[in-house]
Amino acid sequence: MIELEGLTKRYGDKMAVNHLTFTVRPGIVTGFLGPNGAGKSTTMRMMLGLDRPTAGDVRIDGQHYDRLKDPLKYIGALLDAKAMHGGRSAFNHLLCLAQSNGIPSSRVHEVLDTVGLTAVARKKAKGFSLGMGQRLGIAGALLGDPRILMFDEPVNGLDPEGIHWIRNLMKSLAEQGRTIFVSSHLMSEMALTADHLVVIGQGRLLADTSMADFIEQNSRSYVRIRSPQRERLLDVLYAAGITAVQAGGETLEVDGGKAEQIGELAAQHHLVLHELSPQQASLEEAFMRLTAESVEYHAHSDTPAPSGLPAGAPPDSSAAAWGDGWQEGRS
Amino acid sequence: MSTPQQPPTQQLAPQAAPDRQAAPGTPYSLYTSPIPVTRTHLGHALASEWTKIKSVRSTMWTLGVFLLLVVGIGLLVASQTQDEDFGNVPYTITAFFGLVLGQICLITLGVLVISSEYGTGMIRTTFTASPQRHRVLAAKLIIFFAVAFVVSAFAIGFVGLMTEAMHSGGEGKAWGGTVVMGALYVSLLGVLALAVGSMLRHSAGAITAMLGLVLVPAILPAFLMLSESMRTIGEKMMEYNAPNALAKIFGLDNENAAGGAQLGLLVGLTAAAIAGAFVLLDRRDV
């Protein structure tokens, strides 16, 4: 279990991470979502003790990361695929990491095998492609056979085969009962792998919800109708108390899942329908709507700051209140 | 760029909320590793740093060039001198000329031991694996010092032995002490470079800073001597600069001081730089 409490990171007068409070629960895949520059990587670096928080705290099973005696056996992390010395061979790169945690060198061969790099184990890392570098990074994360795994945008820049591989790997790791915390800026990717979702924007918490709830609450469902007798259909729908919106051309859209009711109404009035299809807005749209609000909010909150208000405290408190409101509204 | 088509969410829902979903109160089985847990200590860090230093080519290059310079120039000087030249000097004096150049190799290696990690991003992986940063730096300092001392002591000793063999007719002074002092001096310069590299985190910057530290006090006195008010500063610089310290250790100026004060200054300077490196290491983000 990873607990973040009021985690804040400030670079100069820019708030990279702003009062972040959430929990990564054990045994599930938690997706950490946000647009580029939302503060995902900074948050992960603070979790791993690489960056010092300006305020707040991160604890892993109640301990600070730098107090862990055997960190690689506790958390395996892939932050940056190229965070390695290019002149060192894949085997030696993993060996020096293993030795620093007292992990036997036989384990190095095992993880190289797991990620499929055995054939190039003695090759220098700088000759590796992005996908191979990513695999080597993941081998490093798996080295200690850790209970918690942390991946920062693992599919970035990978070809479809690589994406598929990582996706399956994460699934199989999760099935073994490991805790997985994975960041991404692609909602579609998260929808396939994550059980739980933490969304941030501008360093603030926007959502902390289960994937199923997020899908249910954020994907707008509507019925799309096309009919040559559009005017009559509108009248019939209006009489039945259903509001239809014109969506260009002959297409009408009705909010909610009322396809059956509309079909029956049309049949009763002998109306010809060319299309009657229930639709659901994509999660990507829902995610963009969510983060767009944060950007909008951010712009408003910043304007009063220079006019004499003490910077920092008021945006913080209002941000927390705003975030709470969102969650209350959803739960 | 093609955006992946979003599948309808009805299909997604069962995938997204599988059985393993750990709702509050639901029991879930946590993963336990078969690998035994060991408490990490400095020994692990030393093993790791030893693997690191021997698995990159820059180590072989810098140490190879160092050996080539010290042994090559040393033997060259030995072959061009007569037995009488070694009347009142240690036989290791021939190693001095190579060391003046060779110390730059050790400075470069010292800087690279840490700055290459910052340059490549490896440092984040290192500190994730060993969050006890002071332990990592301590291990780097120990391993580098050991390697540099052994290599330079071997080079100086080898040159001393060869020179003695070639000029057995000369009297020669006991030179065992000069091997230790000389190796200590150049190794400490490298350790200082490592500490500076840790503070500056930049290969070129740290190497330049170290070259400045070694060369400027050797060149500047010539100009400082022109002005009366600067004369004392110039004299101190001349006495304590790195090439002159080595010259004293190898008895080049026929004094008996043997560079103890110069070595003391370097020890103090290195200790201060190491202290600074440790303080900054803990404070800064990686």
TrEMBL record, chain A:
Residues 2-227 form the ABC transporter domain. Residues 304-323 have a biased composition (Low complexity). Residues 298-331 are annotated as: Disordered. Gene3D superfamilies: P-loop containing nucleotide triphosphate hydrolases. Keywords: ATP-binding, Nucleotide-binding, Transport. GO terms for molecular function: ATP binding; ATP hydrolysis activity. InterPro entries: AAA+_ATPase (IPR003593), ABC_transporter-like_ATP-bd (IPR003439), P-loop_NTPase (IPR027417). PROSITE patterns: ABC_TRANSPORTER_2. It holds the Pfam family ABC_tran. Belongs to the ABC transporter superfamily. This is ABC transporter ATP-binding protein. It comes from Streptomyces lacrimifluminis.
UniProtKB/TrEMBL annotation, chain B:
The chain crosses the membrane at residues 60-79, 91-115, 136-162, 174-197, 204-226, 261-281. It comes from the Bacteria. Keywords: Membrane, Transmembrane, Transmembrane helix. Residues 1-23 are annotated as: Disordered. This is ABC transporter. It comes from Streptomyces lacrimifluminis.
